[in-house]
Known about the structure:
This protein is mainly alpha-helical. The protein has a single domain (about 1-125), classed as Globin-like, CATH 1.10.490.10. The chain is built from 7 helices and 2 strands, in the order ββααααααα. The protein has helices spanning about 10-15, 15-30, 45-60, 65-70, 75-80, 85-100, 110-125, and strands at about 1-5, 5. Strand 1 (about 1-5) and strand 2 (about 5) form a beta hairpin. The relative contact order is 0.16.
Amino acid sequence: MKQNNIETVYSGIGGYEKIEGIVETFYGYVKENPILIPLFPDDLTETMHKQTLFLTQFFGGPRLYEAERGHPMLRRRHLPFPITPSARDEWLACMKLALIENQVEEPYYTEMIERMTLTANHMMNTPES
């Protein structure tokens, strides 16, 4: 999908199927992460679905998240969860591994990590104990 004749990250990496693969891989790492898994429900099916919709929209694809769930309001939706600097770091580490495993290449890898790092920083709401 191009926006104003500019290739988006979404189209550059291969679209919806690639996002699905990244999300599936990412949550495989989350399930094994002792810092992250307590923040998530036992059944990750709905969480994975929402993440796929969000990342599709976030990286320039169709506005699927908004169509199904309204404005993302990420910070507000994440306030109930204690997101510490360590949780942020672990989340980003899992996402980096998922991007690598799904063969996301440059310049898309760097752009995705930079944008997700800014978002992850914004989600932090709890200091380390």
